[in-house]
Amino acid sequence: MLWAVTLRMRGTPMPDFGPDSFESAPPVTGVDVPLHRAWAEVDLSAIEANIGRLAEAAPTAEVMAVVKADGYGHGLIPSARASRRGGAQWLGVALLEEAIALRDAGDSGPILAWLPVPGDKFFECVSRNVDLGVSAPWMLTQIAQASAVAGRAARIHLKIDTGLGRSGAAKADWSALVREALAATRRGEVEVVGIWSHLAYADSPDHPTIGRQVEEFEDAIATASRLGLEPQYRHLANSAATWRLPQTHYDIVRPGISVYGISPGEEVGTASSLGLRPAMTLGARIVMTKRLPAGSGISYAHQYTTERETTVVLVPLGYADGIPRSASGRGPIRVAGKAHSIAGRVCMDQFVVDVGDDLVRDGDEVVLFGPGDRGEVDVNEWAQQADTIGYEIVTRIGPRVPRIYVGGA
Ligand SMILES: Cc1ncc(COP(=O)(O)O)c(C=O)c1O
What we know:
This protein is α/β, with parallel strands linked by helices. It has three domains: 1-35, no CATH class; 44-260, Alpha-Beta Barrel (TIM Barrel); 280-406, Lyase, Ornithine Decarboxylase, Chain A, domain 1, CATH 2.40.37.10. It has eleven helices and 20 strands. The strands form four sheets. It has an eight-stranded parallel barrel, surrounded by six helices. Strands 16-15-19-10-1-20 form a six-stranded mixed β-sheet. Strand 12 and strand 13 (304-305) form a beta hairpin. Helix 1 packs across helix 3 and helix 7 (171-186) runs parallel beside helix 8 (208-227). It is elongated. The structure holds pyridoxal-5'-phosphate (PLP).
């Protein structure tokens, strides 16, 4: 016989367990059986609205929503679609396969991918009309080869290192790269549509390197112009610069973290002062609760000991899900509407919270961070407690944590 089971799940269709799946199951009737032990709820309408705020902050520029690293952990395709709906003219990614995934999902607007490795999927990108960032001569060579096979000129953006000291051509190599790009243009292999760079200290808006980087950027543009290269687009600004450095807006701004409703740093502002809505809420369900006497050691190496008789709850999230081990003993974790700290060490799949005498039940919701609707902190505040930044927390939420989408079109 098949037992009567009421399954209510967050955001996903009922899975097909098959007729025999419950044959030997105990009778569970009329209760909520949550499918997800933990989830990252992603509000796509927040992403849409955040793009609108960023566009207001840079009214003279187009917006390139940076959706690399799986949309900063929010999901590549849903984040990209929400960004387009919000008005992003461009999408920006690091990896070529991220750009290919966007095209294969049906995105037909401008996309820039900027972190190729030798032998990368240049042909797949050129044939899909993906723009490519070029920092080094070998990239130009391999892109030219791909364009010959694809039978079309590749659209490229030449990158100058203006002082971040990461990718981009060194100042001493810039003229040679421009000359090579011009030669490839004459051969019909490439079309240079942009010159770009990236800032080292945009989240410290008064930092002296910013003026120097803008000068270096202007110099590189002038050098290219003298050599006969005047591309349509110049771009330099990330989220922080979009908010605070209008002199860096040029033709396109490239915000990433703020697309997801997160401030790039304290000196720039808070999510609410910037008019952003955090898109992600990280939650879980309590696996079990138990009463323990005073003096009970909790989790590996007993780094926490109960001071008196108390209730502890087991939360099924751990460092395999992206909760840093450095969050051991820290918080806040909202359990049944109240803020608590993690008791002892974060383990691979779970951690424990001491809730004192609060009334909590198995299956109750636990919230780590989110937009604040339930009193939870935002991800930057949460990250600070774990000695890291919001960027790292959202991008490292693991694949075991399902993304539940709300607010989508
Ligand atoms: C080249 C480039 N542009 C833009 C961004 C977006 O930066 P942010 O997320 O700080 O807005 C990044 C992110 O790391 C980047 O690498």
